[in-house]
Design the sequence.
C-alpha cells in the first residue's frame, strides 16, 4: 500500500482546479481491489485425491487433501446415509457401491462383488473429487450425537458386574489406543460391542468388514494383545457391521 500512498501524494500535489484527485484515485483503487480479489480466488487450494489398496479386495480407500469428517462414520444402509450424509447418499446412487465409510480425510468404498475396481476407480475418484471441490455437505449436524446416544443406550441395556465393567473399560481403551490407528491406515475401523465370560465381540467396519485377512488380524493381532494385557480374555470374535 506504500505504492498507492505515493501515487496519492503525487496527485494531491497537482492543481486541483485542473484535475480533481478522485478522478485518478478511484479507478486505481478499484483496480487494486479487483486484483486482490482475483489473487484470493487464485490461491484457493485445489482438491487432490488418490487411492490406496486395502487388505479387502472389495474395498478401496479414496484419500483427499481435505478434512471430510473429524470422526468415523459407517454407512451400511442407504436409509442411514439419507438421514445423515449427503455424500454417502450420493455414493449409494452409484450401482456398484455396497457401503460407505468416512473418516478424517478419506472415504472407503466397498463395492458389490460382481464389479471390478479397474473399471470403476477413475470415475469414482472424479465423482468424489468434484463433490468435495463443490464444498457440498459430507456429514450433517447431529450425526455424532445420534450415534453416541444409540451406543450409550445399547451399553446401558447390558448389565455388567463391577469387575466386568472395569474390564470393558480397559478393553475399550486398548482398542482405541492400539487397534484403531493401525486399521485406520487400511481404510477400516473396529468397534467394541460386548464382553461376556471371557469372550470379546468386536464390530468390523469399512475395509475391515468382510476382509479375508480380518480373521488373522483378529486372532494373531487383537486377541493375542488382549490376552497378554488382560488375562481374563479368552477369545476375540467378530460381528460384521
Sequence:
Amino acid at each position: 500500500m506504500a505504492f498507492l500512498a505515493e501515487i496519492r501524494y503525487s496527485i494531491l500535489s497537482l492543481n486541483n482546479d485542473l484535475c480533481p484527485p478522485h478522478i485518478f484515485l478511484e479507478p486505481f483503487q478499484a483496480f487494486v481491489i479487483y486484483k486482490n480479489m482475483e489473487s484470493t480466488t487464485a490461491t484457493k487450494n485445489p482438491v487432490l485425491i488418490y487411492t490406496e489398496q486395502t487388505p479387502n479386495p472389495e474395498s478401496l480407500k479414496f484419500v483427499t487433501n481435505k478434512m471430510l469428517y473429524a470422526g468415523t462414520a459407517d454407512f451400511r444402509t442407504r436409509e442411514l446415509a439419507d438421514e445423515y450424509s449427503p455424500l454417502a447418499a450420493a455414493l449409494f446412487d452409484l450401482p456398484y457401491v455396497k457401503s460407505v465409510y468416512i473418516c478424517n480425510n478419506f472415504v472407503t468404498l466397498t463395492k458389490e462383488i460382481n464389479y471390478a475396481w479397474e473399471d470403476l476407480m477413475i470415475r469414482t475418484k472424479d465423482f468424489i473429487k468434484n463433490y468435495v471441490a463443490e464444498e457440498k455437505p459430507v456429514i450433517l449436524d447431529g450425526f455424532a450425537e445420534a450415534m453416541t446416544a444409540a451406543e450409550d443406550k445399547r451399553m446401558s441395556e447390558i448389565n455388567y458386574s463391577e469387575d466386568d465393567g472395569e474390564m470393558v473399560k480397559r478393553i475399550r481403551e486398548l482398542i482405541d489406543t492400539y487397534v484403531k490407528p493401525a486399521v485406520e491406515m487400511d481404510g477400516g475401523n473396529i468397534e467394541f460391542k460386548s464382553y461376556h465370560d471371557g469372550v470379546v465381540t468386536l464390530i468390523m467396519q469399512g475395509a475391515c468388514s468382510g476382509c479375508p485377512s480380518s480373521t488373522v488380524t483378529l486372532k494373531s493381532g487383537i486377541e493375542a494383545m488382549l490376552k497378554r494385557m488382560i488375562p481374563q480374555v479368552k477369545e476375540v470374535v467378530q460381528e460384521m457391521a
